[in-house]
Design a protein that fits this description.
The complex is a heterodimer of chains A (124) and B (390).
Chain A: H1 4-11, E1 24-29, E2 36-44, E3 47-56, H2 59-72, H3 77-82, H4 85-91, H5 100-123
Antiparallel strand pairs in A: 1-2, 2-3
Helix pairs in contact in A: 1-2, 2-5, 4-5
Chain B: E1 4-5, H1 16-27, H2 38-58, E2 65-68, H3 71-85, E3 92-96, H4 101-111, E4 116-120, H5 130-136, E5 141-145, H6 159-168, E6 172-176, E7 195-199, E8 210-214, H7 240-278, E9 282-284, E10 296-301, H8 306-315, E11 318-319, H9 335-339, H10 344-348, E12 350-354, H11 361-381, H12 385-388
The chains are: A alpha+beta (124), B alpha/beta (390).
The complex binds pyridoxal-5'-phosphate and FE2/S2 (inorganic) cluster.
Residues 70-72, 75, 100, 102, 147, 151, 176, 178-179, 199, 201, 210 of chain B line the site of pyridoxal-5'-phosphate.
């Protein structure tokens, strides 16, 4: 039911973990099935220098988390904010219909982490 | 790759002896059992034999067996049929919160159509309380439907005690014994059961065949009308190869039972003890010992999610199942685990391993070797793990 890319990202997830010196953190919960994803990132001069994720969820949730970190690493905040759940799902070669909601989690968590960074920055 | 099937509660392989017998009734003895000629008569004779084989396994008379298209249909005929035929006497039904959807949803359908329904709670081990049942009974109660063994957590319900109560009060007692057939002794007479559902594909018989035991003297209304087969309870040309296969599977199951129950219980306890000692933060779901189905293991592994667990197991050739919301089409966690008081989060990490006669000690050892590695890998990824561990 999952594409080869999904299985690849599930089996060998990229950027797993937490960055202690992160300057942006985002955690979102999935209202639909109760899963959780947390993104921590390091932004320097408007560029995402480093990013890591932790996910409690199904295979699709893990794969989209892994994929989204790869997609935004090294990108500008604007580019990262333009990434949507459907671009992540597309990059994975598609997701089963019942699993489309899981990809919301990944893009959302990245966006929340970026907003967290921006909010902290504006306070300083 | 090594392949280990640990999902026997979902379905089992057909025994080669059963398949061989069935084949004959597809290509050689293909008559319609209702026909007068020899082609029909030879199939009728085989059907009668199958009926006796099925009846023998549950302590019934062959005239008390009605063949159906499976457990789901038998549950539906029993509950809807009893509700209809007894509607004049009362309209109150009692069931439990951990029934299979074939029972639960049928009862809920009736509750939307003029019947009253009480759904009994269960304790944290997944057991129905006889006292709660007694309290729920009303003068207009016409049917109690409680499963024998639960398909998810393997809890075995106090059927004999319930049967005494319903008999005394002249309330019909339906039991879904799909999971316990062949794994627990069943005696419909001693247990005072009026209606009993069984299914072939859980006992190494073909899929799409089952039976409803209807105690002599109990009248229930049919759901389908037609050629008046199966004493008008279940019209439609009989699935002769399937029924004959089911009969054979029952006979074989009866022969194996005495050795199979202790064998499976041994593997079960080895698996449970191994998981509990090798993985931290894990909880056994369902009772231990005698009150647990011989082939059922169900654990909740904290901080990880069931589907990713199943996927990881599948990659090393191990087939299992989970009550996680992510594995269900509806995205709701298992109603059984929730009824046992489990939080959504803990239900998420549930893993069911259901054993069968082909499983070996080596299978168990392989799982005990590999499962902790998978759990570690998934926990490293889990945002819930670090928070609570130090
Ligand atoms: C307890 C229980 N009842 C009923 C059924 C349905 O049986 P069938 O698949 O033959 O329709 C099952 C099978 O999953 C079951 O486990
Ligand atoms: S995270 Fe629950 S279905 Fe994907």
């Amino acid at each position: 039911m999952y594409s080869e890319k999904v299985i690849d990202h599930f089996t060998n997830p990229r950027n797993v973990g937490e960055i202690e010196e992160a300057n942006g953190v985002g955690q979102v919960g999935n209202a639909k099935c109760g899963d959780i994803m947390r993104i921590s990132l390091v932004v320097e001069e408007n560029i995402i220098k480093d990013i890591k994720f932790k996910t409690f969820g199904c295979g699709a949730a893990v794969a989209t988390s892994s994929m989204v970190t790869e997609m935004v690493k090294g990108k500008s905040l604007e580019d990262a904010l333009n990434i949507t759940n459907s671009t992540v799902a597309e990059a994975l070669g598609g997701l089963p219909e019942a699993k489309m909601h899981c990809s919301n989690l990944a893009a959302d968590a990245v966006h929340v982490a970026i907003k967290d960074y921006l909010a902290k920055k504006s306070k300083v | 790759m090594r392949r280990i099937y640990l999902d026997h509660s979902a379905t089992t392989p057909v025994d080669p002896q059963v398949a061989e017998l069935m084949m004959k009734y597809y290509v050689e003895f293909y008559g319609n059992p209702s026909s007068v000629h020899l082609y029909g008569r030879e199939v009728r004779k085989a059907l009668d034999e199958a009926r006796t084989q099925v009846a023998t396994l549950i302590g019934a008379d062959q005239a008390e067996i009605t063949f159906t298209s499976g457990g789901t249909e038998a549950d539906n005929i029993a509950i809807q049929g009893a509700a209809k035929s007894r509607a004049k006497k009362g309209k109150h039904l009692i069931t439990s919160a951990i029934e299979h959807h074939a029972v639960l949803d049928t009862c809920k359908y009736l509750a939307k159509n003029g019947y009253d329904l009480t759904i009994l709670p269960v304790d944290e081990e997944g057991l129905v309380s006889v006292d709660e049942l007694k309290k729920a009974i009303r003068p207009d109660t016409i049917l109690v439907s409680i499963m024998h063994a639960n398909n998810e957590v393997g809890s075995i319900q106090p059927i004999e005690e319930i049967g005494k109560i319903t008999k005394e009060l002249d309330i019909l007692f339906h039991v879904d014994a799909v999971q316990s057939l062949g794994k627990c002794p069943i005696d419909v007479k001693a247990m005072n059961i009026d209606l009993l559902t069984i299914s072939s594909h859980k006992i190494y018989g073909p899929k799409g065949v089952g039976a409803l035991y209807i105690r002599k003297g109990v009248r229930i209304s049919p759901l389908m009308f037609g050629g008046a087969q199966e004493r008008k309870i279940r019209s439609g040309t009989e699935n002769a190869p399937g029924i004959i296969g089911f009969g054979k599977a029952c006979e074989l199951s009866g022969q194996r039972m005495k050795s199979e129950i202790p064998y499976l219980t041994g593997l079960r306890d080895k698996l449970i003890d191994g998981i509990m000692s090798r993985i931290d933060n894990v909880k056994l779901n369902g009772p231990r010992g005698q009150k647990r189905l011989s082939n059922n293991v169900n654990v909740s592994i904290n901080f990880i999610e069931g589907e990713s667990l199943l996927l990881s197991l599948d990659m090393i050739g191990v087939a299992a199942s989970s009550g996680s919301a992510c594995t269900s089409g509806s995205l709701d966690p298992s109603h059984v685990l929730l009824a046992m008081g489990m939080s959504h989060e803990v239900a998420h990490g549930s893993l069911r391993l259901s054993l069968g006669k082909q499983n070996t000690d080596e299978d168990i050892e392989f799982v005990l070797e590999e499962l902790p590695k998978i759990v570690d890998r998934l926990r490293v990824m889990s945002p819930l793990y670090n928070k609570t561990s130090c």
